[in-house]
Amino acid sequence: MNPMALLKIKEMADGFNARHPKLGLFFRNAGSKIDTGAVLELSVTTPNGEKIRTNFKVTDEDKELLQAISSLVGKRD
Fold first, then answer.
1. 3-24 per-residue burial string, b: 16 or more CB within 10 A, e: under 16
2. Each residue of 37-76: pLDDT tens digit?
3. 65 in helix, strand or coil?
4. pTM over 0.70
């Protein structure tokens, strides 16, 4: 991957984290509780009020992927 593209993504992610600090706190707190058998639920409410929601039960493979992503992102203080 292009190093300049990675730098741009990092800058965008830093801005996102600055605008939405509660999200990082949520993942730091919930991350240790996401285990095989846990249910993750995602929802989106559009500006006009439409709700889109899904959920899934975490498998061993899902947990492995989430741990790999977490190790790539690194823990932030």
1. eeeeeeeeeeeeeeeeeeeeee
2. 999 999 999 999 999 999 999 999 999 998 887 776 655 5
3. helix
4. no
